[in-house]
Amino acid sequence: MASRDFNYAEPSASSDNASDSDMNSTPERVGAIHKSDHVVLNGRPVKVVEVAHSKPGKHGHAKVHLVGIDIFTGRRYEDVRPVGHMIEVPNIQKKEYSVVELNECNSIILRDDNTGKMRNDLKLKKDSDVTARILDKYNEGKGRIKVTVFKVLGEEQIKAFKVIE
């Protein structure tokens, strides 16, 4: 039954089971964003590479010009927003996995060392520098390879790796 008291907010169904770590993003004031922060522009997670503040005009507010690079595709995004408005800051989850098997078809099998669970749902990006280096190290066969998987806004990708000898 809905409450008629307007000072009371009913909990939503999505907030009942979601913890803060499961949330995709959190709001932040645009004026508080700095270079190398992560934000969401055009629905994509970007790393801010340029922030320019402008002074308020005759009838307007101070504005912030943001330039960001998509952390998955490398595409450049720009936006201009008022200083006082809110912008989404994505929650970036990083997780390390050990490489179990790798083949030339960009198929990779990973193991979570903490739980022992295997996963084969990730694909290596074609024409990626990280992919080429991982394949080279795997073919050398010297040591175990650990990859770091970034998960942001429901999208996952291998972003880094290291060889443990």
TrEMBL record:
Region (Disordered): 1-28
Entries under Gene3D superfamilies matching the protein: 2.30.30.30, Nucleic acid-binding proteins
Domain Translation initiation factor 5A C-terminal per the UniProt entry, residue ranges: 91-162
Modifications made to the protein after synthesis: eIF-5A seems to be the only eukaryotic protein to have a hypusine residue which is a post-translational modification of a lysine by the addition of a butylamino group.
Annotated GO biological process: positive regulation of translational elongation; positive regulation of translational termination
Pfam families, per database record: eIF-5a, IF5A-like_N
Leader peptide range in chain numbering: none
Gene Ontology MF term list: ribosome binding; RNA binding; translation elongation factor activity
UniProt keyword list: Elongation factor, Hypusine, Protein biosynthesis
Compositional bias annotation for Low complexity: 12-25
Domain of life: Eukaryota
Family: Belongs to the eIF-5A family.
Role of this protein: Translation factor that promotes translation elongation and termination, particularly upon ribosome stalling at specific amino acid sequence contexts. Binds between the exit (E) and peptidyl (P) site of the ribosome and promotes rescue of stalled ribosome: specifically required for efficient translation of polyproline-containing peptides as well as other motifs that stall the ribosome. Acts as ribosome quality control (RQC) cofactor by joining the RQC complex to facilitate peptidyl transfer during CAT tailing step.
Full protein name: Eukaryotic translation initiation factor 5A
Species the sequence originates in: Adineta ricciae
Upper classification of the organism: Eukaryota, Metazoa, Spiralia, Gnathifera, Rotifera
